[in-house]
Fold this protein.
Amino acid sequence: MNVDAWAAWALIVGLGLGAFFTRAVFVLPGRHLRLPATAERVLRYAPAAALMAIIAPDLALVHGTLSLSIDNPKLVAGLVAFALAAGTRSILATIAGGMVVLLLMR
Amino acid sequence: MQYEKISGLRDGALATIPLLVGIVPWGIVAGVAMVAAGLSKLQAAAMGVIVFAGSAQLAVLPLLIAKAPLWVMYATGLAVNLRYVIYSAVLAPHFERLSWAWRALLSYITVDQTFAMLVAKHSPDDSAGGKHWFFLGGSLVMWSAWQISSLIGIFAGALIPQEWSLEFAATLSLIAILMPLLFDRALVCAALAAGGVSLATATWPFNTGLLAAIAAGVAAGLTVARFRHSLNNGKTA
């Protein structure tokens, strides 16, 4: 499963520029810029929304169709991972628990 | 000055060490998942150094597997990284007296944990000379831990059979990253709306539904926050 080399490097460099830009946008210009309050409110919700928008299709879609069934291993594993993340706040427990459920259900 | 430098670096490094319990497994998973998603070992290692943003790195991997177009992956990475814009605004007054090169270095190396550490210890107007050394000391520990644990994952990941579906670990780690962000009802609603819309728009071309989902999530969060705000105002009035 190899990714086209050009696309992979373009992804890495582009993401790197984006990661640097978001971290430098106020630190580099110094005291000249301030973050408007409206922008701050929008920025508050974007990361959580983006993460969930990636997680949900990976759990609930099987070959492009919605599968909200207990026979969908990724959905069950993901729900277990959500419970573990809420209960333990441990990255390790969340990932290990989810992987164990996925592999047991296959 | 020399004393400030050494004690700052040392205090920063020491303050970060307990956080390694969290970052090392995460780095290993990122390493494994990058290779499982189809990146070469060199590309995966370069990604850790060039991007150095774990959530963004992990967030694009499911999209890379789904063969999403580059611009959708850029937009997604940017959305996940938008929290850094807030950090940058908060850190700017702390670092405004430093040289341009220092500010560029400290921008590149900022992560959630070191940001929280600096803000907890120093106020923006305190002119404590060593704060950039303190920040750098902590950041260097985090940076090295991330690169080393990623490399461990990259080499281990190449040995693990594909039937284990270890690329799923990327999605699981996003769940672990998401959960602590959901600290009020508006944020939970933002996440639920984004999740629902991402499922409803999954057939949109070029994964553009993902961007619609993020926009819907932000709109839902703002709406719920405004509603609760006016409700609270009504109570106190």
